[in-house]
Specification:
Radius of gyration: 24 Å
Strand order of the largest sheet: 6-5-4-3-7
Low-confidence stretches: none
CATH class of the largest domain: Mainly Alpha
CATH topology of the largest domain: Arc Repressor Mutant, subunit A
Shape: globular
Number of strands: 11
CATH architecture of the largest domain: Orthogonal Bundle
Structural class: alpha+beta
CATH superfamily of the largest domain: Winged helix-like DNA-binding domain superfamily/Winged helix DNA-binding domain
Mean pLDDT: 88
Length: 297
């Protein structure tokens, strides 16, 4: 039995439990067979134990509902997404290996960022052990390299780029460094005490993207054309998104977030399909950027 087949079954078992409330063992087996993943009840039981051991995703049996469930939490959802991503990427690799003449069938984003990924393992190790990191860094707009000593807290992905989230030795403000701009990195022996008041998840939940000048959120209203709104409704721009009002031609969405560079760039990407309604300063800023853009032509 191949490792790929086993990984596929595990991802499908989780998918079935997430899609159906308390599916029975028979329902899970039937689903797997429907998806061309042949399995017996004993095989599923072994897979459930493997998922628990390898991924720390605990699939439990509820005697009252006579079915299986996954105890939900943010960390469990993160583990599930990583397992599903691993399953998908493994399928792609298998297909490319077995069908080299059909390599164009798998289209990857040309902007997929792989530079700097060699630093992921030492960064995660430093985070786990609460050890300081020392690295040299070169910004896009600066010819000079700089040396930093930081306390690492997390790794953040945004638009195919990975960032080190940390604090400096003299500040508790969260700093972000693109891994693709790190030239060299080493873990220091010196440990640090993490600031329990720093909530990295909450920090990033307030915004779209990575960078912010402050922690102040604002109410934003964007008016989209009816055709564009259909896409916005199915793929929200931010978790705080709500429908404020609707007409036959437009839909107004409201948001509560930090207005940063990435957010403004996202708004601009919708061109004439969007109109900023609030806050007033953002209306003016949006107009000024559009005026400057027109001067390019």
């Amino acid at each position: 039995m191949s490792a790929i087949a086993k990984l596929t079954r595990c991802a499908l078992i989780i998918e079935k439990i997430q899609q159906t409330k308390y599916p029975s063992m028979q329902a899970i087996v039937s689903f797997l067979r429907k998806m061309d993943a042949e399995a017996s009840e004993r095989t599923v039981q072994r897979d459930i134990e493997q998922i628990r051991t390898d991924s720390q995703i605990f699939i439990e049996y509820d005697r009252f509902h006579r079915g299986y469930y996954i105890e939900d939490s943010p960390i469990v959802q993160k583990r599930i997404r990583l397992l599903q991503a691993h399953s998908m990427s493994t399928h792609f690799l298998q297909f490319l290996n077995e069908n080299p003449k059909h390599s164009d069938a798998v289209l990857l984003n040309d902007e997929l960022q792989v530079k700097g990924l060699e630093f992921v393992e030492p960064i995660l190790s430093a985070i786990k052990d609460s050890r300081q990191l020392e690295f040299t860094y070169k910004k896009f707009y600066d010819e000079q390299q700089k040396r930093y000593v930081v306390q690492p807290y997390a790794i953040k992905e945004f638009r195919n780029r990975w960032y080190l989230v940390c604090t400096g030795k003299s500040t508790e403000k969260l700093l972000k460094f693109g891994l693709d701009r790190i030239l060299s990195l080493q873990i220091q022996a010196q440990k640090f005490v993490k600031n329990k008041k720093l909530d990295v998840r909450e920090h990033f939940s307030k915004m779209v993207g990575v960078h912010s000048e402050n922690e102040n959120r604002e109410k934003v209203q964007l008016q989209f054309t009816d055709s564009q709104a259909k896409y916005i409704e199915t793929l929200p721009l931010h978790w705080s998104q709500e429908v404020h009002s609707k007409t036959e031609s437009h839909v107004v969405f409201s948001y509560f977030l930090i207005v940063n560079y990435e957010w403004i760039q996202q708004i601009l990407s919708y061109g004439d399909q969007v109109k900023v309604l609030q806050p007033k300063w953002l209306v003016i800023e949006h107009k000024n950027i559009l005026k400057q853009t027109l001067k390019q032509y």
